[in-house]
Specification:
Blueprint (H helix, E strand, L loop, with lengths): L2 E6 L2 E6 L6 H9 L9 H18 L7 H15 L18 H18 L12 H5 L5 H37 L4 E6 L2 E7 H21 L1 H4 L1 E2 L16 H13 L4 E2 L4 H4 L2 H27 L10 E2 L17 H24 L10 H27 L3 E2 L1 H10 L8 H4 L1 H14 L3 H7 L5 H14 L3
Parallel strand pairs: 5-6
Antiparallel strand pairs: 1-2, 3-4, 7-8
Helix pairs in contact: 1-4, 2-3, 2-4, 2-6, 2-9, 3-4, 4-6, 6-7, 6-13, 7-11, 11-12, 11-13, 12-13
């Protein structure tokens, strides 16, 4: 047979014969053919880890006996070891709060445990999805906890990607610390700076965002597991919140602690804070990407101060054209992440009374933002930052043609006379250095030394 028949409180329903999930999951698959996107892998494992921790915490007289606990724990370990991940099949857009995913997890674990004990799929004895796997739990406390645990797993990967990109910017900055170039403000010629200063600033900004991300970590470890349906702890074993938090801490290696059970079900503030930091990273990456695309523009009719490694042909019609595709990709990812942050913000405020029912999509948006930025930053660092070269002659040409060099004369001849030099340079097309020499203000060599000192030290 291609299916089996299971029964729940609504009646009978067909379940694929080979499925390890059960009737409530099958109903959800039928109800929610929305995005075609299955649950996030870290989220699946986080939720299964909660079931394992709960089984250990519930193993006490009058609650879960050792044989039941051991069967549940063994089933959970199989999933945590990457087995049966294809059995988590509920669309990311589903019933509010995530009841469908919670039952998907409960059913898979119950069926694995029962078959291991000699039973059959769909015959929920001696392990029942609700009575044993879900003991002392609710969708309302397991799903927000799983979202927080998944974010705890993903955030360090993004932090690593940020530091890797920052390190590459720092390496270029150190290599080009004496490469003088024209600064630009308002997209107009400004005072001299160096490639080293410019790229060093990118590195510093990224490291600051990485620290902000790290600062969200402790709050994500504060969970409301044990709140049950409304944060009251209904139908939970003695000392369950503290026991299950310790089990999760031991299992994940994270500083998991039981927090305010009602607030952690109502409020997604910690997740919104994480999303806000991610948004800040996306904004900074957008700005930096735009800078690099501008600096690499040309190669002959743009700035062309840097050259990005070619990774693919840039045009289907223009032979030899090469585009800054990695930073274009990074821009696109950043814009998508900004959209995910907006979705998180809307869903954060959509909580009502004892529960925020928007958690499945809220979690999905956060997972996407974390994963997309991690992957995009790693790819961009490997493909385009490593191998980036600086066109020093081009930088030199621009700096000597810059009218902004007249600013260096302010301490010696004053603002008004320096402005006259700048105006003469604009009208005649002659470099400031030549006009300065012609007026007997200083020699060409002295002016060049002044430019270098200003770019390196900021003082003249």
């Amino acid at each position: 047979m291609s299916h089996r028949i299971e029964k729940d409180s609504l009646g009978e329903f067909k379940v694929p014969a080979d499925a390890w999930y059960g009737i409530q999951t099958a109903r959800a698959v039928d109800n929610f053919p929305i995005s075609g996107r299955l649950p996030d892998r870290d989220f699946i494992k986080a939720h299964v880890a909660i079931k394992l921790a709960a089984a250990n915490a519930n193993c006490q007289p009058g609650w879960l006996d050792e044989a039941q606990r051991d069967a549940i724990v063994a089933a959970c370990q199989r999933v945590l070891n990457d087995e049966f991940l294809d059995q988590f099949v509920v669309d990311r857009f589903q019933a509010g709060a995530g009841t469908s995913h919670n039952m998907n997890t409960n059913e898979v674990i119950a069926n694995l445990a029962n078959v291991a004990l000699g039973g059959k799929k769909g015959i929920y004895t001696p392990i029942h999805p609700n009575d044993h796997v879900n003991m002392g739990q609710s969708t309302n406390d397991t799903i927000p906890t799983a979202i927080r645990l998944a974010c705890l797993a993903k955030t360090p990967r993004l932090i690593d990607a940020i530091y890797a990109m920052a390190a590459e910017f720092e390496r270029i900055a150190e290599r080009e610390r004496d490469t003088v170039k024209s600064g630009r403000t308002h997209l107009q010629d400004a005072v001299p700076t160096t490639i080293g200063r410019e790229f060093g600033a990118y590195a510093w900004t990224l490291r600051r965002v990485a620290q902000q991300l790290a600062n969200t970590h402790p709050r994500l470890g504060e969970i409301g597991l044990g709140g049950s349906a409304a944060g009251t702890g209904l139908n939970t074993a003695p000392d369950y919140p503290e026991r299950v938090a310790q089990e999760l801490a031991d299992l994940t290696g994270e500083p998991i602690v039981a927090s305010h059970l009602v607030a952690q079900m109502q409020s997604m503030l910690d997740l919104q804070t994480l999303s806000s930091v991610i948004r800040g990273l996306a904004l900074e990456l957008t700005r930096i990407s735009n800078d690099l695309r501008l600096l690499a523009s040309g190669p002959r009719t743009g700035l062309g101060e840097i050259t990005l490694p070619p990774v693919q042909p840039g045009s289907s019609i223009m032979p030899g054209k090469v585009n800054p595709v990695m930073f274009e990709m990074l821009n696109q990812v950043c814009y998508q992440v900004l959209g995910q942050d907006a979705a998180v913000a809307y869903m954060t405020q959509a909580g009502q009374l004892e529960l925020n029912v928007m958690m499945p999509a809220l979690g999905s948006a956060l997972f996407d933002a974390l994963d997309w930025l991690t992957n995009a930053m790693n790819a961009t660092t490997q493909k385009n930052l490593k191998g980036l070269t600086v066109n020093r002659e081009r930088c030199s040409t621009f700096i000597h043609a810059s009218v902004g060099l007249a600013t260096l004369l302010n301490p010696q001849i004053g603002y008004m006379k320096a402005a006259e030099i700048a105006k003469e340079s604009e009208q005649s097309g002659k470099p400031v250095r030549e006009i300065v020499a012609a007026h007997g203000i200083m020699s060409l060599e002295a002016f060049d030394a002044l430019v270098l000192k200003a770019a390196r030290d900021g003082n003249i």
